[in-house]
């Protein structure tokens, strides 16, 4: 028998290769509050990078009064002696037009006005279209970033901005783009409009407490949007690809998808929203209270409004500043919201017992936690599972898996995860094992489950330990919880295990030195047989315990089993889960789930729908 420690080498190598992702995503993990607010920024600071460039992209059409109000407000802002460029994109009227003479005159007046408008902060550039392209092309063609230090602030012509807007945005860029420990590649910009809209159907009311100044929200704001270069470039490429392949930006459950179905390519936001949903990106928003914002839309009659609706908010200016306007809190102090305006918690990675305790407390629901083991499960299958969790409003789960880029990505999208090797290293579990190297994976998987189970029971929470080769299909997929006559349930055909939290209070199930005894048992079982599972070892272990009530759970009594041969099955009434053998090929799994109608992801693994729950 060879000591495991000498065989840790491959595992450590793996850790090192993954370290890149770790530092990339987790430079300030966990996202905990720092007690120091940023010092008052000194706005005469050097530019963050010699290539730093700020361009205003003003999208105009046929509204001279609106345009002149917008330009005047832009020119009245404080630019801190920075060079700031102004690019005006003027759309053409639709041809042919019965009233061409009048339209030509209007266009001339707009061009004359823009030509005569003095812009003393940088270069002024006018892009006058030859035909009507509409808002989608106006936005999308307005910008192709020429470097990672070029930023675009897009305003439509019926906006008016605060004189403070640039100082605010520059400060924001310094704090959330250039400060490496306080920036994330999945933040795509900042909206200066007052947040008002929740696009997910049946989503939460947009409500923030009065102390919140900044927060993150997935939705793009079209009334004064700062765009960061890298995500915008990604979006343009993604749009190109989808457009070329004839893929529509449909996202079920979103109000914006209804708009798209009605007016199609006139608008661009459904495309951007779909992209953001697929990637899991976020936008920074302000909350200045009393309906105030740094950018206000006058909602003049035009493409978006049949008749003028008037300003949507009040302009925030120096005179109305009675709070710490410039304080840019650390990212870890800000709240994050999805398209349902549901708060999510990105980057919740559990790497120690202590962290597990606090994550358990926050994810548990009615003192129940579901652990989902993702070992050996294909990414598409996992994505499909998580979409079902979202649509069933199951939120009390923690994912367990081997360290991978995919798992870190799930964490940053708001799923709580346990990275097995990190966790086991932190609890010193590797010391316990003396087995052959080829079993490291099997043993790691079993051991991490035992640790989390024990911690869970210590906290008096009931827990389900399940594998990714099952799919919940009802709101209460796991039923036996209410039968109090048993402490544990072990599944017969899948890796399903249940432990009742209250049992632990009544009796000492584990005894002293539980983990090392359990590890010894794992080792001795492994010597005798090649393949063992957590449920199997647990059942063996519990057999030796007096007074512990274990029951067998027949999954077929409440679940549908699928396999290689049964085609075109139907769910039938009362089925709560669908499950399949662990070694079933993932393309067959996908096929079977499609037949039943429970394959709910797109080819790029994103959920087909956003499902909000109030
Ligand atoms: C801000 O920077 C300028 C130029 O470097 C300097 O003169 C000024 O004292 C600084 N102000 C503060 C409040 O630090
Ligand atoms: C960068 O962000 C961190 C975390 O929020 C903060 O503690 C630090 O002061 C910031 N650095 C600068 C130069 O502002
Ligand atoms: C399964 O259903 C599909 C679609 O309804 C059908 O085309 C196919 O023939 C069915 N297969 C079997 C074996 O019944």
From TrEMBL:
PANTHER family registered for this protein in UniProt: OSJNBA0004B13.7 PROTEIN (PTHR33604)
Molecular function in Gene Ontology: transferase activity
Protein name: Putative nucleotide-diphospho-sugar transferase
InterPro entries according to UniProt: Nucleotide-diphossugar_trans
Upper classification of the organism: Eukaryota, Viridiplantae, Streptophyta, Embryophyta, Tracheophyta
Lineage top rank: taxon: Eukaryota
Keywords assigned by UniProt, alphabetized: Transferase
């Amino acid at each position: 028998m060879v000591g495991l420690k000498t065989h840790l080498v491959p595992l450590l190598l793996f850790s090192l290769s993954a370290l890149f992702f770790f530092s990339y995503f987790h430079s300030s993990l966990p996202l905990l509050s720092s007690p120091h607010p940023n010092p008052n920024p000194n706005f005469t600071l050097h530019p963050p990078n010699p290539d730093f460039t700020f361009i205003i992209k003003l999208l105009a059409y046929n509204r001279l009064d609106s345009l002149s109000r917008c330009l005047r407000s832009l020119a009245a802002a404080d630019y801190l002696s920075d060079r700031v460029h102004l690019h005006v994109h003027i759309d053409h009227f639709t041809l042919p037009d019965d009233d061409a003479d009048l339209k030509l005159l209007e266009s001339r007046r707009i061009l004359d006005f823009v030509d005569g408008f003095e812009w003393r902060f940088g270069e002024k550039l006018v892009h006058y279209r030859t035909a009507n392209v509409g808002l989608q092309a106006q936005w999308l063609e307005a910008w192709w970033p020429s470097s990672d230090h070029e930023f675009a602030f897009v305003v439509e012509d019926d906006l008016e901005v605060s004189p403070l807007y640039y100082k605010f945005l520059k400060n924001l860029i310094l704090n959330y783009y250039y400060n490496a420990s306080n920036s994330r590649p999945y933040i795509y910009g900042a909206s200066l409009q007052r947040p008002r809209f929740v696009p997910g159907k049946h989503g939460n009311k947009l409500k923030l407490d009065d102390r919140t100044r900044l927060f993150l929200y997935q939705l793009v704001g079209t009334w004064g949007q700062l765009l960061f270069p890298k995500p915008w470039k990604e979006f343009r490429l993604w749009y190109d690809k989808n457009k070329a392949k004839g893929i529509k930006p449909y996202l079920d459950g979103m109000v914006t998808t209804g708009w798209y179905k009605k007016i199609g390519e006139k608008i661009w936001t459904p495309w951007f929203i779909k992209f953001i949903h697929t990637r899991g990106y976020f936008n920074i928003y302000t909350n200045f209270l009393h309906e105030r914002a740094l950018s206000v839309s006058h909602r003049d009659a035009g493409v978006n409004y049949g008749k003028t609706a008037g300003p949507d908010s009040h302009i925030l200016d120096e005179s109305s500043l009675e709070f710490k306007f410039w304080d840019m809190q650390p990212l870890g102090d800000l709240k994050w919201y999805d398209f349902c305006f549901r708060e999510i918690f990105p980057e919740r990675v559990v790497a120690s017992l202590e962290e597990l305790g606090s994550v358990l407390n926050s994810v548990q629901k009615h003192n129940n936690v579901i652990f989902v083991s993702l070992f050996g499960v294909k990414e598409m299958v996992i994505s499909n599972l998580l979409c079902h969790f979202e649509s069933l409003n199951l939120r009390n789960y923690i994912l367990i898996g081997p360290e991978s880029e995919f798992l870190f990505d799930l964490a940053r999208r708001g799923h709580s995860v346990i990275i097995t090797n990190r966790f086991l290293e932190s609890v010193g579990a590797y010391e316990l094992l003396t087995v052959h190297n080829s079993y490291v994976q099997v043993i790691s998987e079993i051991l991490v489950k035992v640790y989390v189970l024990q911690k869970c029971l210590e906290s008096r929470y009931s827990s389900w330990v399940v594998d990714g080769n099952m799919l919940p299909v009802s709101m209460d997929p796991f039923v036996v919880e209410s039968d109090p006559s048993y402490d544990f349930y072990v599944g017969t055909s899948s890796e399903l295990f249940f432990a009742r939290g209250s049992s632990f209070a009544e009796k000492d199930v584990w005894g002293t030195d539980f983990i090392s005894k359990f590890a010894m048992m794992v080792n001795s079982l492994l010597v005798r047989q090649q393949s063992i599972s957590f449920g199997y070892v647990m059942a063996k272990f519990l057999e030796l315990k007096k007074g512990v009530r274990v029951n067998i759970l027949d999954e077929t009594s409440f679940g549908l089993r699928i396999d290689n041969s049964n085609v075109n099955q139907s769910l039938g009434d009362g089925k709560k889960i669908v499950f399949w053998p662990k070694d079933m090929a993932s393309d067959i799994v996908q096929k079977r789930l499609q037949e039943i109608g429970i394959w709910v992801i797109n080819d790029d693994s994103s959920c087909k729908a956003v499902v909000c729950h109030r």
